[in-house]
Amino acid sequence: MRADGPGWISLDRRLADGAALDAWVESELRATAGGHCDLAGALIVYRLAGHLAELTVGCLADQRRALALTPAAVALRFGDAARLDELAVSTPAVAVLPDDPVAGDPGTEVVASVDALRAVAADGLAATFGPVADAVRARAPFGLRGMWGTLADHVAEVAVRRAREQRQDVDAAWVEAERLLDELAARVRSPWTRPRRQVVPTATGPQAVVTKGTCCLIYKAGAAPEDRGAAARLVAPAACTSCPLRTVDDRARRFATYLEGHRW
Length: 264
Fold this sequence. Notes:
It contains 9 helices and 8 strands. The chain has 264 residues and is α+β, with helices and mostly antiparallel strands.
């Protein structure tokens, strides 16, 4: 995808512009975050983490390839307020296995194994997400532990969702996600709470789903910043189905309703 048209900006340029970073947080604060500073930071990393997880997990799972991501190779295009509409990668280096049809082509790096592919993927995630996490942490009271946990949650959720949609082995996808997260954890100084596998009974049999390790704080969007009580009351109805703030049984009921309403 070409990312040199109107509205696109490379991630390294955004990171080098302190005023633009301030405006990014301020836009999110005025929009969905509704004045909650911690939610503004959480939403920025949540949106970016989702795009990076789709890109990274998709390449590994579907193509057995890994993009060597860097902030200079990633471009962003924003929609309304601070919403990240699209993410594009321009002329990246691609790690491939020796039997890949494009092995040896310009821009490819041949690696020996799937383990090596995961290492390249984890390097790219750390190199691209890390500077954004640090920049947001300097401007919003949402901790690095929560930010990296958000990325980990997305990686696991994307892997399991894609496997289910494509009628592939969900348990195998979970194992692969865990291995990628092991690689990522070895590169990141901030610990995070891991997403967890939960087996949910449904009308068509038990199905594995992902329980997040980190709350994205979106439940706060419906409460005024000064009303802490209102925010607390909104947790139950407004939290995500996979939120760790929900009970195991509550998550299971909600997941079952969702899964039974779809044909996989």
